[in-house]
Amino acid sequence: MLTPTARGPAMASERNADSSSRPEYQTSIGSGCWTAQACLEIRLEDKVNEDEAKEFVAGLVAWCHGDSIHEIAVAGADLHIVRALLASGLLAQATSLSLDMDPFSGNALGPKLAETIAASPAAASLTCLNLNGQEIGNRGVAALASSPFFTRLESLDLGNNEIKPKGLKVLIESTCFPSLSDLNLEGNYEAIDQASVTVLLASPLAGRLKRLRLPDVSNDDLDRLYERFGERLDF
């Protein structure tokens, strides 16, 4: 049993009285804590099977009952945890989901992570999605770019994800991100070539983006990008 060692569920009024100081939800495989009134930070210590993931997330749901959660950040997640979170209802109010991974950790979840999120109706509430360092590659980008659930998404962090020009072209030409205004592609050093820059500059997305973060590009491409994006461009 993954029983909380610090505290169990309590009345919402008790928790909301001072949520910043309440004890963590603590189990043998991980914990949940509040970094701010509306932000839930989850830390996983061990890999889990499907049943353990469901039990852990069910405990989190009970612990958070009655609270408004707008941001969920998970450190050390595996696919079982992600699937359990998506099925749990915790994302019903959340607008931000962060599943970033240290690109040097060797623990990236790969394209299946993107496919799992892209297939879930729970993603429809998101305005911000961070998958930095998860190595989703072109296959994962294709899943995101074809999902019907990202119509509200405003910020997408795909830094350090081994995206190549083909994947970037699919992302740029997708019509599934009508609200996207902030895109991070830093660390995808093979994604940008002359052809993909041309596609980007001609795309409707170029007109909508308020911020675009890219890996290093050639001087010629840099001039073209700055002419189109100006101060919206970041390296």
Question: What does this entry look like structurally?
Answer:
The model is unreliable at 1-19 (pLDDT under 50). The chain has helices at 12-17, 50-63, 79-88, 111-118, 137-145, 165-173, 194-202, 204-208, 219-229, and strands spanning 25-26, 30-36, 39-44, 71-75, 96-98, 128-130, 155-157, 182-184, 211-213, 233-234. It has 9 helices and 10 strands. It is elongated and about 55 Å long. It has a 10-stranded mixed β-sheet. The protein is 34% helix and 16% strand.
Concise description?
The chain has 9 helices and 10 strands.
Full CATH superfamily name of the domain at 95-234? Ribonuclease Inhibitor
Q: Return Rg in Å.
A: 19 Å
Beta-strand content bin? 15-25%
Describe the main β-sheet briefly.
10 strands, mixed
Overall mean confidence score, pLDDT: 88
As a percent range, the share of helical residues equals: 25-40%
State the distance separating the first and last CA atoms.
47 Å
Question: What is the level-2 CATH architecture name of the domain at 95-234?
Answer: Alpha-Beta Horseshoe
Kindly name the structural category: alpha/beta
Q: List the uncertain runs.
A: 1-19
Strand order of the largest sheet: 1-2-3-4-5-6-7-8-9-10
| Fold-level CATH name of the domain at 95-234 | Leucine-rich repeat, LRR (right-handed beta-alpha superhelix)
The CATH first-level class of the domain at 95-234 comes to Alpha Beta
SSE order, as H and E? HEEEHEHEHEHEHEHHEHE
Q: Looking at the structure, what is the overall shape?
A: elongated
